[in-house]
């Protein structure tokens, strides 16, 4: 599905398409329906394709820098135990870790700070 205007309301398809435009394809490795992420964006006032594009453009470089940060030894071992050596080594070599939903949520935390952290704790039942 293609959209023609930045004023179009976000839906799961346009959200994914916009993330594909904003972030490297290497980060497109986690399959989701984007329903939860769409709700989060709407809850924080991001409801159109244009708003999402502006939001992602504002935080893109910082988000990608966070994604490229080397893992500390504790997290590297933790992830290897959880996901296996081969996957973690591939991601370390490639200089990336997070999938599109995580990159979006990092941007949300950068933009909305403690309000988003509290929101995500409630979402996750923490």
- Spans of at least 5 consecutive residues whose pLDDT stays below 50 are none
| Counted beta strands | 0
What is the radius of gyration computed over CA atoms, rounded to a whole number of angstroms? 15 Å
Number of self-contained structural domains: 1
Strand content: under 5%
Multimeric state: single chain
Shape, principal axes of CA atoms? globular
N-to-C series of helices and strands: HHHHHH
Provide a compact summary of the structure.
The protein has 126 residues and is mainly α.
Q: How would you explain this protein's 3D organization?
A:
This protein has one domain. The protein is mainly alpha-helical and 126 residues long. The longest helix is centred in the C-terminal third of the chain and has 25 residues, at 100-124. The termini are far apart. Helix content is 68%, strand content 0%. Helix 1 (12-22) packs across helix 3 (49-68), helix 3 crosses helix 6 and helix 4 (73-83) packs across helix 5 (85-94).
Task: Using brief descriptors, characterize the structure shown.
mainly alpha; 0% strand; globular; 126 residues; single chain
């Amino acid at each position: 599905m293609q959209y023609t205007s930045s004023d179009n309301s976000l839906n799961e398809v346009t959200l994914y398409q916009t993330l594909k435009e904003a972030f490297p394809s290497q980060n497109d490795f986690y399959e989701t329906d984007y329903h939860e992420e769409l709700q989060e964006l709407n809850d924080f006032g991001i409801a159109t394709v244009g708003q999402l594009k502006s939001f992602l453009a504002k935080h893109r470089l910082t988000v990608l820098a966070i994604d490229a940060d080397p893992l500390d030894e504790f997290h590297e071992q933790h992830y290897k135990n959880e996901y296996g050596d081969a996957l973690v080594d591939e991601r370390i070599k490639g200089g990336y870790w997070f999938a599109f939903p995580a990159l979006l949520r990092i941007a949300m935390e950068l933009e909305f700070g403690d309000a988003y952290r509290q929101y995500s704790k409630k979402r996750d039942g923490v």
